[in-house]
Amino acid sequence: MADSLDTHQAQGSARPADDPEQAPDFSGWTCPAPLRDNQRVVMGHGGGGVLSAELVEHLFAPAFGSEVLAELGDSATVTLGGARLAFSTDSFVVRPLFFPGGSIGDLAVNGTVNDLAMVGARPAYLSCGFILEEGVELSVVGRVAEALGAAAKEAGVTVATGDTKVVDAGHGDGIFINTAGIGLIPEGVDIRPQRAAPGDVVIASGAIGVHGVAIMSVREGLEFGVEIESDTAALSGLVESMLGATRDLHVLRDPTRGGVATTLNEIASASGVGIRVNERNLPVPDAVANACAFLGLDPLYVANEGKLIAFVPPEHADAVLAAMRAHPHGKEAVAIGTCTTEHPGMVVADTGLGGSRVVDVPLGEQLPRIC
Questions:
Q1: Residue 356: predicted pLDDT
Q2: Domain match, 314 and 220 both
Q3: For 370, which DSSP code?
Q4: Are residues 280 and 293 in the same domain?
Q5: 144 in any annotated domain
Q6: Which residues form the PurM-like C-terminal domain (predicted)?
Q7: What DSSP line would sit under 225-266, residue for residue?
Q8: Quick check: is 213 in a domain?
Q9: 3-state secondary structure of 35
């Protein structure tokens, strides 16, 4: 989340900020101190957690005033000429530009393709905007562009239009990329966070926390005994396989910024159900678990770029799991929890010690600049 602004339901109002007397009224905000006491952007605003949600709910969404925007899913669903289309946009500012398993070019394609797939759409076309910093080597730009083109071909989408801008040296970080995408939603598919229902089985498509740890390892020069590669991948093919098992998928989300924990909380909030996960079932690789223990991180909050979370009616769960495990991007799929009428709007984890804990939304992001 994103991502069609990629957070929670919007409420409140905002006014233009260029006139001090007409600036947004922050007094009713329920966010923590960094927003109330310091009316400037902080890194946490881009982390996909509470600060991001508050920024969208109380500033951007009221200013834009769009009914289409109000659902705030990974993609907007629009109708044009009788066709149901998914429409999404995302910006990529990852540092470093290249990392084990991928690059900013791969992410720019896969991130937007996955946002479209999370509403069941078949991704078709992308736009691509490059923001280049003065002084960046053209060979680096070329490597990123080639990676982006290769990822688009692998995902089966066409880069149909684009734009390039250059900013002064010191006013960027080499390369930033924005991509937007459109795709066609098949008849009979209705996938959105509000459809999560008591009894739904919560499924993870594979190992979690891999991308965030891969980024941190190269950014900070850390070694964990084994190289951890990003899981960046386009998931549209996996979603098609799942839809082949049943069109009645309730929710799909790719747990990017804020990780699995933030994704589950957003779905619980949107649908009003409670979610209970079993920590013993969480697919956390040993290398990720060890790295997180060393860094003091919780894998549930670490970003992923090639995984999805699915909410499936119990009568279809076995068929969907089988379809996922037959696909290369879902071969490690596992049920991690269920939806319940208890503790509505909250996520609770059963621990390996026999207790339970509330899994809350993070304030910002444990690992900034990961996508």
A1: 93
A2: yes
A3: -
A4: yes
A5: yes
A6: 198-342
A7: SSPPPP-----HHHHHHHHHH-S---EEE---TTHHHHHHHH
A8: yes
A9: helix
DSSP assignment string, 179-236 = EEEEEEPPTT----GGG--TTPEEEE-S--SHHHHHHHHHHTT---SSPPPP-----H
Q: Which letter does DSSP use for residue 58 in this model?
A: I
Domain count, the chain: 3
What range defines the domain where residue 325 resides? 193-358
Q: Which two tokens stand for residue 201?
A: 């089985």
* Predicted local distance difference test score (pLDDT) of residue 110: 98
The CATH number given to whatever domain includes residue 82 is 3.30.1330.10
Instruction: Tell me which DSSP letter residue 224 carries.
Output: -
Band (pLDDT 50/70/90 cuts) for residue 24 is low
Q: What tokens appear for 341 in the block?
A: 């009428």
CATH number at residue 261: 3.90.650.10
Report which residue type is found at 80: L
Residue 181 lies in a domain: yes
CB–CB of 89/166 below 8 Å? no
Using an 8 Å Cβ cutoff, are 253 and 118 in contact? yes
- pLDDT, position 14: 39
pLDDT in tens, 28-68: 544 444 444 557 888 778 777 777 777 877 787 788 877 77
By percentage, how much of the chain surpasses pLDDT 90? Answer: 68
72 has pLDDT over 80: no
State how far the Cα of 78 lies from the Cα of 76, in Å rounded to an integer: 6
Residue 27 scores a pLDDT above 60: no
Amino acid at 367: L
